[in-house]
Specification:
Blueprint (H helix, E strand, L loop, with lengths): L2 E8 L11 H5 L4 E5 L7 H14 L2 E5 L17 H22 L3 E4 L3 H9 L1 H14 L4 E5 L3 H8 L4 E6 L23 H14 L1 E3 L5 E3 L4 E3 L7 H14 L3 E2 L7
Parallel strand pairs: 1-2, 1-9, 1-10, 2-3, 3-4, 4-5, 5-6, 6-9
Antiparallel strand pairs: 7-8
Helix pairs in contact: 2-3, 3-5, 4-5, 5-6, 7-8
Length: 255
């Protein structure tokens, strides 16, 4: 029987400004990428989400990003290695403290937004993120873009890497994500999204935006929590997976 992890980016509300429906998503996903305050999230809100995840048995990971609240971490940046390594350590440490207070544990790291896309192919920034993770805890897994050079780079450095596919994002023929600035980059139809993910699990392949058929390794599927139909998309996907005999479970043991 096929198994897959279903993850979402949560804890991104800031003060009185809500972002997504974290409670509803925690009833659907098996892993939660929790904002660490650099691209989104505030301590009280993050702690609330972590407590809810712990109560539901949802695995949590540190969703580390560039120091970019205004741009929601989606603007390209070029910090020095000293800065980036320290920023990664700082964010993981912050979430570890909140997780301990909530009676749970941080199991993995998933870079956010522009940082995620940059380290997919930028060996220097990838090395910095890897170094930051290893400095805190080499047992932490790295969630990364399937097929990107960072996967082999992180594995060579001794990290466990979880390859991720995006349910609600369009792909370029080279396996990279279509820029959000382009039409069709974000998918919104729950039925279409569920069907393409079921095909991916069954065949290991997905259709790129130009119609090209590409291969993707995936141990986890992401549904973005900040899209308007996030809960409907995640719910439809979970229902389709269950109907197809796919077991949903967190990739990180002991979650």
């Amino acid at each position: 029987m096929a198994k897959i992890d279903l993850n979402s980016d949560l804890g991104e509300s800031f003060g009185p400004w809500p972002m997504g429906d974290d409670v509803a998503m925690l009833g659907i996903v098996t892993s939660a990428n929790i904002a660490c305050g650099f691209h989104a999230g505030d301590p009280a809100g993050i702690l609330k989400v972590v407590k809810e995840a712990a109560a539901r048995g949802v695995c949590i990971g540190a969703h580390v990003g560039y120091r970019d609240l205004v741009g929601f971490g989606r603007r390209n940046m070029d910090p020095s290695s000293a800065e980036l390594v320290a920023d990664v350590i700082y964010q993981i440490g912050a979430l570890q403290g909140l997780a301990r207070a909530a009676g749970t544990t941080v199991r993995y790291v998933k870079p956010h937004g522009a940082l995620y896309n940059t380290i997919a192919h930028d060996a220097r920034q990838a090395a910095d993120v890897i170094a930051g993770i290893r400095a805190v805890d080499p047992a932490l897994a790295l969630m990364a873009l399937s097929g990107a050079p960072v996967v082999a780079q992180a594995r060579a450095a001794g990290l466990t890497v979880v390859c991720e596919a995006f349910a609600d994002r369009a792909y370029n023929p080279d396996g990279s994500l279509v820029s959000r600035s382009l039409p069709g980059a974000v998918l919104h139809d729950p039925a279409q999204i569920a069907a393409r993910m079921m095909r991916l699990i069954a065949t290991g392949r997905i259709t790129a935006i130009d119609g090209t058929d590409i291969a993707l390794e995936a141990q986890s599927i992401c549904v973005h929590g900040d899209t308007p139909a996030a809960v409907a998309i995640a719910g439809a996907l979970r229902a389709a997976l269950a109907a197809g005999g796919v077991t949903l479970e967190p990739f990180a043991r002991g979650a």
